[in-house]
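Lab notebook, bench 4. The sequencing result for the construct came back, and we need a structural model before the next group meeting so we can plan mutations. Quick request posted to the team channel:

Model the 3D structure of this chain.
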Amino acid sequence: MSAPSIPNLLSLRARGGRGRSRGRGQGRGGFGTGSETAASRGQAHDAVIQGTDTDAAVSRLSAVDVGYLSDPYARYFVSALDGPPARRFPIINRGTYTRTTAIDNLVHSFLAGADGEEQKGGVTRQIVSLGAGTDTRPFRLFSQQGHPQLVYHEIDFSVTSTKKLKTVEAVPPLASILTNRSTGDTGGWSSQPLNGEYFCHGIDIRRLSPAATEILPGLRTDVPTLILSECCLCYLSQEESEGVLEYFSSRIPNISVVIYEPVHLGDPFSDTMVSNLAARNIHMPSLDRRRDEGDQAARFKQIGFETTRQLSIDRLWSKWVSAEEKERVDRLEGLDEIEEWQLLAGHYVVVWSFRGDGFEGWRGIE
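Done. Here's the predicted structure in token form:
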């Protein structure tokens, strides 16, 4: 399954937030009556997952509008038909900010490589984003100077990849970045930006496994590669999610992965998260088992990764955000619910793991 990044589970609390609720994509599908077939229930669940990408886009734009993040492309992926964009609660904005900046830091460290390769140019790196949805990262990366040659893949449902192409074609600032576009037969498309290659694959990632004979068009197996999963693999069964990772790790010697997702810590708050998701007809198999740092390390070691590290969102805020930056963020809105923030953010983690050469910039990150 391709799984667009759902709201930080943080955004489940934003439904009563300030501003107009957008609601697009929420409540679609559902499990209905027992007369429905398993296939129809699966399709309905997929539709709900696809719809949650709207929540992610609105949360990103809210953080941008308030001043947490700088992203000139965020507004192009939120429809103006429903009125002014919703503004999330401060706790949601801070969660979006922390998650985004943490992953950006890991991405830029990966691109920089050893001894500042990023500044030298000519070094090819590859990123594969699972369930990318309306993510703006490729636009931000391809518009920046000084990066190495970059091969960027986004994988999502065909309907989502087709919609993204239509948005790019309709918005000149986006079209000027992803230039020289061409389309495939299954909803996929590609582009040849000035400093690399871009591929948007319209496929169901559940088709990817070590035994799959299908090779993604444009996928390089000879360059350091980063797999991104922001609330994507958590929707798959353990067998499916490990199969997707093995699809890439069995083909690419120098590989890394960054995962952002909620975790079940065996406490009442975790149970409430699961109930809130169930109320929206969303099931995350990853929450059926507790995943602490030891679980994650064992998970990736079994697949063949050498090094695994993990930090919760509240620890990322504490360790990776400078005192000066914390002061800037605090001035934007302020946050009175400190204990609530620590509880909520403690249930989301960023995990990064790698194997092989090309990840020298990650070895000292804690």
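Strands lie at 125-130, 150-156, 182-183, 189-191, 196-202, 225-230, 255-262, 307-312, 348-355.
Will bring this to the meeting.
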